[in-house]
Structure formats: C-alpha cells, structure tokens
Request: fold
Amino acid sequence: MQLRLVVEYDGTRLLGWQLQPGGPTVQGELERALGVLLREPVRVRGAGRTDAGVHALGQVATAPVAGPPPDLRRLLRGLNALLPPDIAVREVTLADDAFDPRRHARSREYEYRILRHPARSPVWRAWAWHVPRPLDAGAMDAAAALLVGEHDFAAFRGADATETPRTTVRRVLESRVRHEPPLLVYRVEATAFLKHMVRNIVGTLVEVGLGERPPASMTALLAGRDRTRAGATAPPHGLTLVAVRY
Reply:
C-alpha cells in the first residue's frame, strides 16, 4: 500500500524537488514530515524532478506505508501543519503498490508565465519572467503550434544534462501562447519532457516574439537537433508544473 499525494509548492527558496545537500527540497521536506507522523523513515517518489525555483500546483508523489492504513484526513492535517509555508499537500489517497507516479503518468502539463510590460512587478516577480520589450504574442503562438506532435527535441535539451536519455523524441499534445493580462502564458502538455526542455522552448519563443527569428524557424530547429541554434534558457521562476495526468 502507498500514499498518493498531490503537492503544491512555491519553488522560490527551494533547491528543487530532489534531495540536495545544503538546502531545502520538496522531497526532503515531505520525507521529514511523513517520518514524524508515521514514526519511521519514509522515501517519497515524485512524478517529475522540478528544478530549483520552479513551482508546482499538481505534483504527484507516493510514499510506502507499512501496517494498517492511516487516517487520511488526520494525516493531511498533520502534514500541512509540519510542512513549511511554501509547501502544501492538497490531497492524500491510497494507491496500489504497483502505482509508479513517474512511469504511469500519461502526460504532464506545464505553464510558463511572462510579464510583458515596461515596468517590473513586485506581485509577479517570483512567478513570471519580466520581459520589458514588446512581444508579438501571435507570432509566438504560431511558433509554439509547430511543436505539437511527435518530434525529436534534441535542440531543446538542457546543455548541462547529466543523464543521457534513451531517446530525445517526445510527443507534445498541446503547445500554445495566450495573452492573459498582464501576462503571456505558454501552456504545454506532453507525454514526457527532456531536462530544461520547456525553459529552452520559452527562451526561443521570446526571440520569436521580439522579431529575432521567424515562427517557422521552430521546424528547422527540430530538424537540426542543435541546441546551440535554439534560444537561451528562460529563468526557472516563470515555470509551473500544473498537473500530472494518469
């Protein structure tokens, strides 16, 4: 038997999902709180490893439980009492031991927020990338649409990736840019993502919005598979993991 958690967090001060020395992580904080409540060491597994500074509204995680099922309502209250203010568990349910939050996910949905305004915003400073120059949202949306489907996304892979994936081919189900004042929001859903893939796409879309490259260049980037020809990596704080679908 496992606990299935839906977790929300503000990644501003966190070093990301995965356990890291020298600072707080989402996995570390969850394991600490669960260890107190269940009175035994607990290892938590997540559906995805978000980077330092990245937020989540619907991260999914599991933790094994020995013995009889705990009172889930009481556990939820206890977890949120023990967790720091920037991490919360929204839901706790039971799952079969065979459930794997990463391998069994059908897709993951991310949103990236861009503040398109000459003046910076204290309200959005931790949740949106401030781009003070005008951006053509229509051109960005046209470029984003070219990513839908199954493609080789090697051109958008993280240059510092320490793990070599078996394949860089991914299937994108949705990719679009919408104007949601005062923001531009890039929404993307895929069966899986490469490290830094969304942030590298956003950096390239911003170049399209600035008129530095045409929307159609996205097709050539996919075909060329050359990371050096795509845009710079967008900062992490604009990115949010919205949902994991099963």
